[in-house]
Amino acid sequence: MGAGTQLSLPEGLRALGALATQQTQRYPLRRAPAVSGERLTLTARPTSSDIGPGVVDAWTLNGSLPSPTIRLREGRTARIDLVNQLPEPTILHWHGLSVPEAADGHPRFAIQPGGTYAYEFPVHNRAGTYWYHPHTHMRTAPQTYRGLGGFLIVEGDEEAAHELPRGEYEIPIVLQDKRLGGSVSLTYELGMGPDMMMGYLGDTAFGNGVANPTLDVRRARYRLRLLNGSNARILELGLSNGEPLTLIGGDGGLLEAPARVQRIMLAPAERADVLVDFSARRPGERIMLRSFAFQIPGMMMGMGMGGGMGRGGMMGGLMLGTEMDFVEFVVQDTAPEPFEPLPSRLSELPGLDVDAGTPRRTFRFQSMMMNHTINGQSFAMARVDERVRQGQTEVWTYVNESELPHPVHVHGGQFRVLSRTGGRGRVMPWEMGPKDTVLVLPGERADVAVHFVHPGIFLLHCHNLEHEDMGMMLNFEVVE
Ligand code: C2O
Ligand code: CU
Ligand code: CU
Fold first, then answer.
1. Per-residue pLDDT band at 350 (split at 50, 70, 90)
2. Cα 93 to Cα 473: distance, rounded to the nearest angstrom
3. Residue 170, beta-bridge partner list
4. Which residues, chain by chain, have CB under 5 Å from ion ligand 2?
5. For residues 457 and 384, is the Cβ–Cβ distance under 8 A?
6. How far is the CA of 463 from the centre of ligand 2 (A)?
7. Ligand 3: centre distance to CA 335 (Å)
8. Contacts of 195 (CB under 8 A, 6+ apart)
């Protein structure tokens, strides 16, 4: 690059990303242990765990990093006991599931060290990729960052009727960024300034709790259940070889029809179920699941920068929108394995009953410096801001009035995205089915149709975990 050569911002971001991933040492991707059955116990405790470049003090469930993958069947009742052996209070939340109030993991249910919480809930949700994570008052971000949280997979007959890859060919992968800053540790040290505005951005890509993971694959079709489990980083996922991803599902199970997409923009807490076909790849070929460089129009100037001063005076994480390689797939020298083509229709989606008479509410997401609010207010445990009727469908409008992105998440029921205006101005392919988290970028407004099954107090919040911990959350009550 000669003197006076100017890189455009996206090129610059790409170059930075390339620098960061150059000659990266890669470590084998692990699969979480699967747990299923009528009654499960999850014990949260500090555990020395191998993250690839070394062993760190992580917080785990049942000693495992990543946390176990829970498999439940549609229509069954789950019974799960949480045992807290951490040095601070905690509580788990089943993200995306509609469960009774007492099983939702609201922060007011947090248990002290030494305590136990017994969850019991019927599995109402469609088959799909859900997850669970801590929901402790003002401690969700550090607890999730240190390793707590895993997949919760719901299985059902409609999905099982399709010839989708399973067993060895079905891989749940939680994608996260961690801030190693030249050391090997999962220490979480929230700095002032950018960390409190952007959230805690990392400098290293993780998959299933391992830094810069790599996975040997056969020449076959795989199903990747992708979860963005990052505290704050939005991902722009695609394959390094330019092949499209075959999108089959989102937050709430199968889409009506599969879609071929080059990129999937996945915000924290969102899931994408994709098929990747390695059957025609050359043995030895290396293909990256990459988060490509991107820019967010209307974002606060300079706020792509993560960090502030981290450990050892290092700057914090990589800017939001920096290219990062998440998982490397290495094609093995195996015989190509044939598979059934996908049907053009995957699923019947439940109908929507929205008309001119449907009740509406608006929620405004605002960030002023380090203050993140909804309708001008910060979370208060004992305050209930909205009352909605059980069984009633409502249209909720999320308006982003700030210069920061906000992935908006609701407890107690999933929703359908009806429209998006401003910004991207459309509903994206991965937003076509039931969802529980919708990314609202600066200048955007999203209309969603929500419906609540269980009475009680539930939460609406931003799923940037730092924003959430800082109070971008509210209670609403579902009344009978
Ligand atoms: Cu995934 Cu209230 O959370
Ligand atoms: Cu949730
Ligand atoms: Cu936010």
1. confident
2. 15
3. 223
4. 95, 411
5. yes
6. 9
7. 47
8. 201, 306, 307, 308, 316, 466
pLDDT in tens, 15-52: 665 555 557 899 999 999 999 888 999 999 999 999 99
Torsion angle of the four alpha carbons 71, 439, 239, 302, in this order, in degrees rounded to the nearest 10: -130
Residue nearest to atom 3 of ligand 1 (CA): 95
Least Cα distance to 67 among 143, 126, 137, 161 occurs for 143
Residue 130 Cα, ligand 2 centroid: separation in angstroms? 9
- Cβ atoms within 10 Å, residue 324: 25
pTM to 2 decimal places: 0.94
Strand spans (E) along 189-348 = 204-207, 210-211, 213-217, 221-228, 235-239, 245-250, 253-261, 264-266, 271-277, 286-291, 324-331
Q: What is the pLDDT of residues 330-348, one digit of tens each?
A: 999 999 999 999 999 999 9
Both tokens assigned to 130: 């859900």
The residue-averaged pLDDT of 113-118 equals: 98
Q: Which atom of ligand 1 is found nearest the CA of 269? A: 1
Residue 7 confidence (pLDDT) above 70: no
**DSSP string computed for 121-157:** EE--SPSEEEEEEE--TTTHHHHHHTT--EEEEEE-H
Q: Ligand 1: residues within 6 Å at CB?
A: 93, 95, 133, 135, 269, 409, 411, 459, 461, 463
Using CA positions, which residue lies closest to atom 1 of ligand 1?
95
